[in-house]
């Protein structure tokens, strides 16, 4: 193992918690890939950790993704459909074990957070959210419900409730002309699967525990009710990637290149940055905008 890789990984795990704790104060909901990317930005990869594994994944990134299971086991992190959420205990851990060495020792030994540890204070110039001010037991979840984030929460909730709404008509956005005489328009929905995943050799970069595994939340796409396309956007390093579209969190029904059932892998050569994938269930094929 490269020099300091274990130490660096622990420091990045602490950075993961720090990033999520800061998100409670800013009401910012980050996906798993963004959280991991910020942790690595704060604790950069060394030469050994930058070595690319199969699929163009840096060794240090994969090590960090796997190691986040320790945060879940400690009860400090919850991995969910809409992203990663720091628990109240996790927030307190950033205070109780602020020193990297103390954090590493506590995580390795399974040391519980002292019950009298306060929640972290708001950064300078940042007002406390209602959840933090009241010390609510589910601060992160309450913060998500701030009125200014309502529209975003509706979008994030699309995937888990798609089955319930897929037979309804989604109203189109009203234009200025509609205020005078133009009638409202609507988009007819089509029968959609319960879930659609991008399953390929970069799922761990999205925060999933493994690649080519469509069952994980981090690999799921979200349905846009207006254009009836399933969508996923992720920040990925430059490289060549392979994937398929898998339905309902299993391989029983999957589609490859040109929408062929159980067909050849989709192949994409990515220059780095945000990769956006759209899946159209009418054609079973993908679109790269």
Strand and helix layout:
Layout: H1 5-26, H2 32-42, H3 59-67, H4 69-73, E1 77-80, E2 83-86, H5 88-96, H6 100-109, H7 130-134, H8 139-144, H9 150-156, H10 158-165, E3 170-171, E4 186-187, E5 196-200, E6 222-224, E7 229-236, E8 239-247, E9 254-255, E10 266-270, E11 273-280, E12 285-287
Antiparallel strand pairs: 1-2, 3-4, 5-8, 6-7, 7-11, 8-9, 8-10, 11-12
Helix pairs in contact: 1-2, 1-3, 1-5
Task: Please provide a written account of the structure.
With 289 residues, the protein is of the alpha+beta class. 32% of the residues lie in helices and 19% in strands. Strands 5, 8, 9 and 10 form a four-stranded antiparallel beta sheet that branches. It has a four-stranded antiparallel beta sheet with strand order 6-7-11-12. A two-stranded antiparallel sheet has the order 1-2. α1 (5-26) crosses α3 (59-67) and α1 (5-26) packs across α5. The two termini are 40 Å apart. 33% of the residues are buried.
Summarize this, please?
With 289 residues, the chain is of the alpha+beta class. 32% of the residues lie in helices and 19% in strands. The chain has helices spanning 5-26, 32-42, 59-67, 69-73, 88-96, 100-109, 130-134, 139-144, 150-156, 158-165, and strands at 77-80, 83-86, 170-171, 186-187, 196-200, 222-224, 229-236, 239-247, 254-255, 266-270, 273-280, 285-287.
Q: What proportion of the residues is helical, as a percent range?
A: 25-40%
Bulk shape: globular
Q: What is the count of β-strands?
A: 12
Strand percentage lies at: 15-25%
* Rg value: 21 Å
Largest sheet: 4 strands, antiparallel
Query: If helices are DSSP runs of H or I spanning 4 or more residues, what is the number of helices?
Result: 10
Order of helices and strands: HHHHEEHHHHHHEEEEEEEEEE
């Amino acid at each position: 193992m490269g020099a300091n890789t274990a130490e660096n990984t622990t420091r990045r795990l602490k950075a993961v918690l720090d990033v999520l704790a800061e998100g409670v104060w800013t009401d910012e909901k980050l996906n798993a890939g963004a959280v991991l990317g910020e942790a690595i930005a704060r604790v950069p990869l060394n030469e050994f950790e930058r070595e690319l594994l199969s699929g163009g994944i840096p060794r240090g990134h994969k090590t960090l993704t796997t190691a986040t299971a320790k945060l879940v086991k400690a009860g400090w992190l919850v991995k969910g459909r809409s992203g990663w959420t720091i628990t109240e205990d996790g927030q307190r851990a950033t205070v109780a074990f602020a020193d990297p060495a103390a954090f590493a020792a506590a995580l390795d030994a399974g040391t519980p957070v002292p019950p009298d540890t306060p929640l972290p204070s708001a950064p300078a110039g940042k007002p406390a959210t209602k959840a933090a001010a009241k010390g609510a037991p589910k601060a992160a979840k309450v913060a998500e419900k701030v009125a200014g984030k309502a529209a975003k929460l509706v979008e994030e909730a699309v995937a888990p409730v798609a089955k319930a709404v897929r037979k309804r008509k989604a109203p189109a956005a009203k234009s200025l002309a509609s205020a005078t005489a133009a009638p409202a328009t609507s988009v007819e929905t089509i029968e959609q699967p319960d879930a659609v995943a991008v399953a390929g050799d970069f799922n761990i970069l999205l925060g999933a525990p493994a690649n080519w595994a469509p069952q994980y939340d981090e690999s799921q796409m979200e349905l846009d009710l207006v254009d009836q396309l399933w969508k996923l956007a992720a920040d990925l390093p430059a490289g060549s990637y392979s994937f398929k579209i898998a339905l309902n969190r299993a391989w029983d029904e999957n589609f490859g290149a040109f929408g062929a059932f159980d067909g050849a892998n989709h192949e994409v050569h990515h220059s780095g940055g945000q990769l956006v994938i759209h899946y159209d269930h009418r054609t079973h094929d993908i679109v790269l905008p």
